[in-house]
Amino acid sequence: MPVAETHSMTALGLMSGTSMDGMDVGVVETDGESVVRTGAGMTVPYPDKLARELFQLLEKPERAADDGLTDLEQAVTDAHCDAVIGFLQATGIKPADIDVIGFHGQTVLHRPERRFTRQLGLGQRMADRLRLPVVNRFRHADVAAGGEGAPFVPVFHQALAAGLSKPLAILNLGGVGNVTYLSGNGVSAFDTGPAGALIDDTMRRRFGRSFDEGGAVAARGTVNRELVDAFLADPFFTRPPPKSLDRNTFHRWGKPLENLSPEDAVATATAFTLESVAAALNYMPESPNRWLVTGGGRRNDTLLRALGRRLGVNVAGVETVGWNGDFMEAHAFGYLAVRHLRGLPLSFPETTGVPRPMPGGVSYKPR
């Protein structure tokens, strides 16, 4: 049942994105409209065996659509529970001080055109184990109503950026890229294209490393412009927003990259991300006067410098305005959990293409 009160609540948000580099935990105090305070955060890696199983699942999307995945979903839930326990112990926050947990779960397949999305995570199991209220299944109502089911963070971005000059773009470079465009007329948002996923997958295959630290490998390579031009011919880039992507939507581009040298392959994958972001300008009424970047990709110095040159404006990490880019999405799902409790909408026609502002999420109380 929605909570009528408008007082501030303390929420824990849990997020593991499409890059699957770990589980983020963050605490936020909010009334579900204004962001009162974002607090501590912590990233906990998935156990090695579980991480391997999740990556193997991504290679067989039909399993994510058709299999129960009972053991895997329990393992994902338990790993997130362990992350919460470790976070509370490390920060000294008492469980009694937490009003609700926003548990996004691990996305393993996202097909909004089929009205299907799947995030592994059992809300009742978490509520029972942690003895705290839990909200999860944030995206399902949106997708069922015909929305894209993503991105969901823009309403949080809008609250955070209330005092900043507009027009402003907030770019999230996780496994998939997405942008929130804020102007005097409100908020719009959409996925831009591949971000870290394609670069990381190329690094794993060619270098046996999980990511390109600082963009150092890309900086040594030469971009194959023919491949970039072919990539930009994908119909996704001429499709007007709102629009969203599965992590592996552009996975097929890994194959032509195999024909390049390792350094050139990473440089070209990085250029795919760069040009995806630049293409987003086609769907913005005005060019933003600033781009603030969150997600792991903000640490890719090569990419951020190239974005600044390509976009012709200041491009910098969200830390320049006092936000924490490591835990922004975790904080956001804590914020969204409070909005759920208050019966406020989580997604909007301008962000996911849903027909009307939509509530979302499912609540669980400890049994």
List keywords for this structure.
single chain, about 375 residues, alpha/beta, Nucleotidyltransferase, domain 5, 2 domains, seven-stranded mixed sheet, five-stranded mixed sheet, about 20% strand
Plain-language structure description:
β4 (100-111) and β5 (116-120) form a beta hairpin. The protein folds into two domains: 9-150 and 329-344 and 357-364, ATPase, nucleotide binding domain (Nucleotidyltransferase, domain 5); 154-321, ATPase, nucleotide binding domain (Nucleotidyltransferase, domain 5), CATH 3.30.420.40. It contains 14 helices and twelve strands. It has helices at 48-58, 61-66, 70-91, 123-130, 140-144, 154-160, 196-207, 216-220, 225-232, 254-257, 262-279, 301-311, 328-342, 349-352, and strands at 9-16, 23-30, 35-44, 100-111, 116-120, 134-136, 168-173, 176-183, 186-194, 290-294, 314-317, 362-364. 37% of the residues lie in helices and 22% in strands. The chain has 367 residues and is an alpha/beta fold. α3 packs parallel to α4. The strands form two sheets. Strands 1, 2, 3, 4, 5, 6 and 12 form a seven-stranded mixed beta sheet that branches. The longest helix has 22 residues, at 70-91.
Q: Could you name the ranges where pLDDT drops below 50 across 5 or more consecutive residues?
A: none
Beta percentage is: 15-25%
Structural class: alpha/beta
Number of helices: 14
CATH topology type of the largest domain: Nucleotidyltransferase, domain 5
- Name the CATH superfamily classification of the largest domain: ATPase, nucleotide binding domain
Which geometry do the CA atoms define? globular
Instruction: Give the strand tally.
Output: 12
- Kindly report how far apart the N and C termini lie: 17 Å
Name of the top-level CATH class of the largest domain:
Alpha Beta
- The amount of helix comes to 25-40%
